[in-house]
Specification:
There is one protein chain. By secondary structure, the protein is α/β, with parallel strands linked by helices. Helices cover 42% and strands 22% of the residues. It has two domains: 31-109 and 221-258, 3-Layer(aba) Sandwich (D-Maltodextrin-Binding Protein, domain 2), CATH 3.40.190; 112-211, D-Maltodextrin-Binding Protein, domain 2. The protein has eleven helices and eleven strands. The longest helix is centred in the N-terminal third of the chain and has 22 residues, at 3-24. It is elongated and about 60 Å long. The complex is composed of two ATP-binding proteins (ModC), two transmembrane proteins (ModB) and a solute-binding protein (ModA).
Amino acid sequence: MTEATLICRANRLSRVAILVGAVAAPAAADEITVFAAASMANAMAEIEERFEASSGHDVVVALAGSSVLARQIQQGAPADIFISANPGWMDELEQDGLLKPGTRFDLLNNSLVLVAPGRDAEEVDISPDLELAGLLGEGRLAMALVEAVPAGIYGKAALENLGLWPNVAAQVAQSDNVRAALAFVATGEAPFGIVYATDAVAEDAVSVVGTFPPDSHSPIVYPAANLANRDVPAETEFLDYLRGPEARAAFERHGFVVVPH
């Protein structure tokens, strides 16, 4: 075999090795930032860990009130995915052209509950006949911001529809997000609070003393969407994962109802 033949064969083998290496190499990992409603904290911690393990991508989850997150997105925050605790803030971002078209979908449902400190608080019937002001006494009713944060918006609407708001409005202690309102109750700083059912599941130091009738407020819906600022494969993979069986099981473990797709 001539030297020229050996060189030619070596070149062919080298090209084959390069091609094989290219096929075998794993896809590059992406890092994505997910802005999610504070009420999703426990579920998102589990989903973040499982998605990273199965995909190889890195996920950074930022949690806050939906209003805070939406405003940050409007101001140019480098988020990739947004999951809101109500459609209103997602509608606003969509009107601003900040969502990638065709990626928005309804992910979860939740319910609204009245909580009290301790594990054995006495249950009440949440109806127009509830003497909520009397139950509060000199104490405060912990709620998320009633004009901005979804849990507070839903809570105020429910109290108004039941005719209870005028008697308790002056005793409402508002916080930046629903988890902060939950903490007020868990630490005994407030005798009652209005939070999501999923928040109550996440906190051992409170009891659910009543569930607000579904017709006392608009349906609690969590929409999710890909933001329009950039496009990497991990964004689509993560949204697909949220609709898959592993994420569904995680959400249900934390008390959410997953919207069928």
